[in-house]
């Protein structure tokens, strides 16, 4: 089976919820494959977004490029609908002044249909997420 | 177009008029509470303020918490991660002005290393004959602390909106600056 970046919109992934939205920096920017475009939070924390794969996938490696994110929790669901999320990973990120934070996660049991990212806290009033990429395998379509 | 959200903490000694200021702002000047009630926990006032010359707005979540001990002991929790600060004193009460530096320090300690936009508001200008804090004195201190300075009379419903509009504008400016930082990263 072919390994792909499961979080690309060109591979069928979609951001189905985001708690912040600036028209100029929409959530789709996180999955367009271009780290120059980004999604911004627009004030107060926590903030979250949900990515739908529209299929069953197995994630092996997840990379999040962001700025000012402090505590990040990732939950996943294997349901057809965005329900029954279970906590998967929680990380405290390090601030890297003037450089994107690049957090690599090798998750165990990466079976998912949805991922929910919760930015619990940040190093500043606002945070940005530039790209989410998930290396892995598409297992089956949702019937 | 973007709608920002800001946690605004309202700080200052008890009886300077924090709650009345927040309530009058909430009701667009419709209500002035004549009887004093001591705020013991926290009141939340939510109001959206447009930012002039942009299509943008800021939704202010104003945390009006007790200025009087022992109720102020739980402020550490209530004041967690503030975005903007509204610091209030009573122009007829010198001590309430002196205590502003203490309140400011406490607010800033909530998010060390992060700038906290703020305004200083001298309330009760209607009691002109009892004035104990001169405008110039307050302005000088505010300037040194990087705060914008206002005087209001919530009783006369004068100038009660300006401090909040100023906070919204400052927070919006901060957002613009951070977006530029994000843009410059890659």
Automatic annotation (TrEMBL), chain A:
Sequence ranges assigned to domain F5/8 type C in this UniProt record: 18-121
Domain of life according to the entry: Eukaryota
Entry-linked Pfam families: F5_F8_type_C
InterPro entries (UniProt xref): FA58C (IPR000421), Galactose-bd-like_sf (IPR008979), IFT25 (IPR033558)
Name this polypeptide is given: Intraflagellar transport protein 25 homolog
Organism of this sequence: Ceratotherium simum simum
Automatic annotation (TrEMBL), chain B:
Pfam families: Ras
Coiled-coil residue spans: none
PROSITE patterns in alphabetical order: RAB, RAS
Keyword annotations of the record: GTP-binding, Nucleotide-binding
InterPro entries found in the cross-reference section: P-loop_NTPase (IPR027417), Rab_GTPases_membrane_traffic (IPR050209), RabL4_euk (IPR034112), Small_GTP-bd (IPR005225), Small_GTPase (IPR001806)
Alphabetized Gene3D superfamilies for the sequence: P-loop containing nucleotide triphosphate hydrolases (3.40.50.300)
Family: Belongs to the small GTPase superfamily. Rab family.
Name of this protein: Intraflagellar transport protein 27 homolog
């Amino acid at each position: 089976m072919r390994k792909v970046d499961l979080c690309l919109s060109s591979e069928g992934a979609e951001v189905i919820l985001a708690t912040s939205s600036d028209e100029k920096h929409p959530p789709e920017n996180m999955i367009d494959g271009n780290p120059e475009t980004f999604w911004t939070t627009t004030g107060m924390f926590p903030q979250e977004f949900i990515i739908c794969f529209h299929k069953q996938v197995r994630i092996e490696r997840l990379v999040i490029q962001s700025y000012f994110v402090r505590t990040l929790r990732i939950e996943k669901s294997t349901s057809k609908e965005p329900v029954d999320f279970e906590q998967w990973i929680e990380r405290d990120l390090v601030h890297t002044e003037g450089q994107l934070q690049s957090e690599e996660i090798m998750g165990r049991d990466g079976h998912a249909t949805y991922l929910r990212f919760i930015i619990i806290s940040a190093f500043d009033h606002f945070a940005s997420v530039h790209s989410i990429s998930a290396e892995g395998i598409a297992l089956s379509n949702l019937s | 177009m973007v709608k920002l959200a800001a946690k605004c903490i309202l700080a200052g000694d008890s009886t300077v008029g924090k709650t009345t200021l927040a309530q009058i702002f909430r009701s667009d000047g419709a209500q002035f509470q004549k009887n004093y009630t001591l705020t013991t926990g926290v009141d939340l006032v939510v109001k959206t303020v447009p930012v002039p010359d942009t299509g943008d707005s800021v939704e202010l979540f104003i945390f009006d918490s007790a200025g009087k001990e022992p109720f102020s002991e739980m402020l550490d929790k209530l004041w967690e991660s503030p975005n903007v600060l509204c610091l209030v004193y009573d122009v007829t009460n010198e001590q309430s002005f002196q205590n502003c530096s203490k309140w400011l320090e406490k607010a800033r300690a909530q998010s060390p290393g992060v700038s906290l936009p703020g305004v200083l508001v001298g309330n009760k200008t209607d009691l002109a004959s009892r004035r104990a804090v001169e405008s110039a004195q307050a302005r000088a201190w505010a300037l040194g602390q990087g705060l914008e300075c206002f005087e209001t009379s919530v009783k006369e419903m004068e100038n009660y909106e300006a401090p909040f509009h100023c906070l919204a504008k400052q927070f919006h400016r901060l957002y613009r600056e951070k977006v530029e930082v994000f843009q410059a990263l890659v």
